[in-house]
Specification:
Keywords: FAD, Flavoprotein, NAD, Nucleotide-binding
Largest sheet: 7 strands, mixed
Cofactor: FAD
CATH superfamily of the largest domain: FAD/NAD(P)-binding domain
Structural class: alpha/beta
Low-confidence stretches: none
Protein name: Glutathione reductase (NADPH)
Radius of gyration: 23 Å
Number of helices: 13
Distance between the termini: 65 Å
CATH topology of the largest domain: FAD/NAD(P)-binding domain
GO molecular function: nucleotide binding; oxidoreductase activity
Shape: globular
Organism: Sporosarcina newyorkensis
Length: about 450
């Protein structure tokens, strides 16, 4: 027997749950489906639990920096205790999420959704028909196509480790590898990052990345560049990561190998049966977030092929957009304002707006202000050894084009620059703004 709904949503994270709630509140019949615990990746297996772990890494680093400067006791990292604390944030999310949907009157289905036709889904033995279908399934690690790939552990598995291994190899030099490497190194593990090209964290300012690389080395993280990983082998209780660097064969013996080599849209749902086209980024959609090949289907978040970066705020914005277009007819087009992004290493690396390379290609009359700030009061007071900024301004218009920060305060300070860019605040307005003093924000007038 077919169960019919106005909207079927695949995925219970940010990209799916917001649209589901909005449409239900508008009077639609809605069902939501997930083959993993309800609540999505960010809150359970990504951003939020990761930042809990980062907090302890920051505290440990702070303690080490201030040892002998008012601090006399060394911090001890208790991984098992940290995992217990992390679970206080994640343990109730599936039940809380499902109860929220139940109160709203949203139907819940547990299981893998696959297309049965253009507007029908199979979930186990259930056949569901939707006037519309929203795909918001997020992302998953890419397949690397190497021998022993089954020994790779995903980032969500790292966040569930009961014991932290003594030796860890991270494959890939992006967000995941660097953030988790900084956590593991502060916890006492021997850490290696193996990356295939000559630059890591390629979407961030290279000068600041170089400073972060130096700091990473200081805390014991070994980064190996231009290495192609060819295979992972099991050797007793350990693993051996094998690779090549300029034809030179290399290998690392380790207790854990973590996949940090990139993610792709999670779309294992027999899209062909639903006439849903995809490309390497995700479901191909038009400017209204509607499938280009199936008008019944929309997509949002990491599952959609758009110009937006794979960040939670983008998934939220796209989910709201989908809801608006479903309820009112396609009338609102996807727009991507400047979105700040942060690598939660210790210290943090942040970026918003135009890069120096983009400014050079733009033809604009621009100025780059680049300074090391370790001797500024804000950073010297906590003995930070890596702190710097690069701010790019439009000389003719007198506004900020881009900001790039490296410091313990970067994750908060970058939001002020995002506001300045979004609302085109003039440099003079920023200089005249009386921020609380002494704070990192009060330094802005010296950064532009």
């Amino acid at each position: 027997m077919v169960k019919e709904y106005d909207l079927l949503v695949i995925g219970t994270g940010t990209g799916g749950s917001i649209a589901a709630s909005k449409c239900k509140e508008a009077g639609w019949s809605v069902a939501i489906i997930d083959d993993r615990p309800f609540g999505g990746t960010c809150s359970q297996r990504g951003c939020d639990p990761k930042k809990v772990l980062v907090g302890i890494a920051e505290l440990t680093d702070w303690n080490e920096r201030m040892y002998g400067k008012g601090v006399r006791t060394a911090a001890r990292f208790d991984w098992r205790n940290l995992m217990e604390f992390k679970r206080t944030f994640t343990a109730t999310i599936p039940q809380d999420t499902e109860e929220k949907f139940k109160k709203l009157g949203v139907g819940s289905y547990h299981g893998k959704a696959i297309f049965y036709s253009e507007n029908e889904l199979k979930v186990g033995s259930e056949l569901l028909k939707g006037k519309y279908i929203l795909i918001a399934t997020g992302a998953e690690p890419i397949e690397m196509g190497i021998g022993g790939e089954e020994y790779l552990r995903a980032s969500d598995e790292f966040l569930e480790l009961e014991e932290l291994p003594k030796r860890i190899v991270f494959v890939g030099g992006g967000f995941i590898s660097f953030e988790f490497a900084h956590i593991a190194a502060r916890a006492g593990s021997e850490v290696h990052i193996v990356h295939r090209s000559e630059r890591v964290l390629k979407h961030f300012d290279p000068d600041l990345v170089d400073l972060l690389m130096e700091r990473s080395k200081e805390v014991g993280i070994q980064v190996h560049l231009e290495v192609s990983v060819d295979a992972i082998e099991k050797r007793g209780d350990s693993f051996v990561v094998k690779g090549k660097q300029n034809e030179k064969e290399l290998e690392w013996e380790t207790d854990l190998v973590v996949h940090g080599a990139g993610r792709t849209a999670a779309l294992d749902m027999e899209l062909d049966r639903g006439n849903v086209e995809r490309d390497k980024k995700g479901v191909r959609v038009n400017e209204y977030m509607q499938s280009v090949s199936n008008p019944y289907v929309y997509a949002a978040g990491d599952a959609a092929s758009t110009d937006g970066p794979p960040l939670t705020p983008i998934a939220k914005a796209e989910s709201l957009l989908v809801a608006a277009n479903l309820l009112e007819g396609n009338y609102e087009k996807a727009k991507y304002p400047v979105i700040p992004s942060v690598v939660f290493t210790v210290p943090k690396l942040a970026s918003v707006g135009m890069s120096e390379q983009q400014a050079k290609k733009s033809g604009l009359d621009f100025h780059v202000e680049y300074q090391n700030t370790t001797d500024w009061f804000t950073y010297k007071r906590t003995n930070e050894s890596a702190a710097a900024f690069k701010v790019i301004t439009d000389q003719e218009e007198g506004v900020v084009l881009g900001a790039h920060l490296l410091s313990e305060e970067a994750d908060e300070l970058i939001n002020l620059f995002a506001l300045a860019i979004r609302f085109k605040l003039s440099l003079q307005e920023l200089k005249d703004m009386p921020f609380a003093y002494p704070t990192s924000a009060s330094d802005i007038s010296y950064m532009i």
